[in-house]
């Protein structure tokens, strides 16, 4: 952590300016769409890397280099404020966290930066019980995880949970857990038309439904569910916001990488209907979500968990 500490404080109000369409930004992208199906709290729960219920134990204010959030920014002398929050963990609802405490970052505005579409006000108090949907940030100092939006924060209130950005949304803990469960592998396996492990080949830019998409050819190594040709054409859009009912947030894929993909069939090919939850990179036998965080399972563990000793087919 760099910069001078502003000291511990009981309550913080920070103005946040973030966007999900700048490719260079180290924040996991939140799409900005013009459609009625805009990003909402369900998406924030589904496509975050970690969902935790806990009690705020401490907060510290500091300033960090702008490159922590925009690595390509040339202004080495520019810093901006963040709050570093420590939670006492009560329950890990999603993600591979095992500790009794968790530290995460609440970012402040980036003065004069290219990023800045939405202003959001944060306030947290010592002793507050909250549920937070966090994303993994590789470079941010003061914690590996960050709270990117008030959509990802829920405050305890009279036995229910109130979303910070949509105060009219008050739900039970079971309702939040049900949304999280919709992104778990057993549910995705049930819903998928095709589940494969394969190697990324050619990546082509094409147009579909009037929008530019990436068409990714994947050479199948194993079919875990369903059957198609040896080469599966997967349509994706990386980041940005588009009025397409099939679009989901997925990590960037590169030629030669191995992936486990949960797919559904549509005209023009298959698409990753579960977004980052069903698009998992294989690295040294482990599964990586969002190209950043360990999924908590190895490839073999996930395969065994889903197939439960059942038969799968391997392509030589």
Question: End-to-end distance, in Å?
Answer: 49 Å
Beta strand %:
over 45%
Say what the CATH topology of the largest domain is. OB fold (Dihydrolipoamide Acetyltransferase, E2P)
How would you sum up the global shape?
globular
The whole-angstrom Rg is: 20 Å
Question: Mean pLDDT across all residues, rounded?
Answer: 76
Named at the architecture level, the CATH assignment of the largest domain is Beta Barrel
* Topology, number of strands: 20
Structural class: mainly beta
Keywords:
mainly beta; 10% helix; single chain; disordered N terminus; five-stranded mixed beta barrel; OB fold (Dihydrolipoamide Acetyltransferase, E2P); 2 domains; 316 residues
Explain this structure.
Helices cover 10% and strands 45% of the residues. By secondary structure, the protein is mostly beta strands. The chain has two domains: 7-181, OB fold (Dihydrolipoamide Acetyltransferase, E2P) (Beta Barrel), CATH 2.40.50; 185-314, Beta Barrel (OB fold (Dihydrolipoamide Acetyltransferase, E2P)), CATH 2.40.50.120. The model is unreliable at 1-37 and 109-121 (pLDDT under 50).
Question: How does the SSE layout of this entry go?
Answer:
Elements (H helix, E strand, L loop, with lengths): L6 E2 L2 E8 L22 H6 L3 E16 L13 E16 L6 E7 L10 E8 L3 E8 L8 E2 L6 E5 L2 E4 L6 E2 L1 H9 L3 H7 L2 E15 L2 E15 L5 E6 L21 E9 L2 E3 L7 E5 L2 E4 L3 E6 H9 L5 E2 L2
Parallel strand pairs: 5-8, 14-16
Antiparallel strand pairs: 1-3, 2-6, 3-4, 3-7, 4-5, 7-8, 7-9, 9-10, 10-11, 12-13, 12-15, 13-14, 13-20, 15-16, 15-17, 17-18, 18-19
């Amino acid at each position: 952590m760099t910069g001078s500490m502003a000291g511990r404080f009981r309550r913080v109000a920070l103005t946040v300016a973030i966007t999900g369409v700048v490719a260079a930004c180290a924040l996991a992208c939140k799409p900005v769409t013009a459609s009625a199906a805009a990003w909402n709290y369900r998406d924030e729960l589904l496509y975050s890397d970690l969902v935790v219920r806990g009690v705020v134990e401490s907060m510290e204010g500091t300033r960090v280099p702008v490159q922590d959030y925009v690595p390509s920014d040339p202004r080495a002398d520019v810093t901006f404020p963040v709050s570093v929050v420590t939670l006492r963990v009560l329950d890990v609802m999603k993600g591979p966290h095992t500790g009794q405490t968790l530290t995460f970052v609440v970012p402040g505005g980036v003065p004069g930066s290219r990023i800045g579409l939405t202003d959001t006000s944060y306030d947290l108090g010592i002793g507050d019980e909250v549920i937070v949907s966090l994303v993994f940030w590789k470079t941010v100092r003061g914690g590996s995880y960050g709270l990117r939006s008030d959509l990802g924060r829920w405050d305890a209130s009279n036995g229910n949970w109130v979303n910070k950005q949509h105060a009219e949304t008050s739900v039970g803990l079971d309702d939040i857990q049900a949304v999280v469960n919709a992104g778990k592998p057993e549910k995705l396996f049930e819903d998928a038309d095709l589940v494969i492990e394969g190697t990324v080949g050619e990546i082509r830019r094409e147009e579909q439904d009037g929008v530019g998409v990436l068409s990714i050819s994947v050479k199948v190594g194993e079919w875990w569910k369903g059957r198609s040709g040896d080469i599966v054409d997967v349509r994706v859009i990386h980041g940005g916001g588009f009025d397409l009912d099939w679009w989901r947030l997925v990590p960037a894929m590169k030629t030669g990488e191995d992936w486990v993909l949960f797919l559904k069939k549509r005209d023009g090919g298959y698409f990753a209907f579960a977004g980052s939850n069903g698009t998992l990179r294989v690295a040294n036998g482990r599964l990586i979500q969002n190209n950043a965080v360990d999924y908590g399972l190895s490839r073999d563990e996930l395969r065994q968990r889903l197939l439960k000793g059942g038969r799968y087919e391997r392509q030589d």
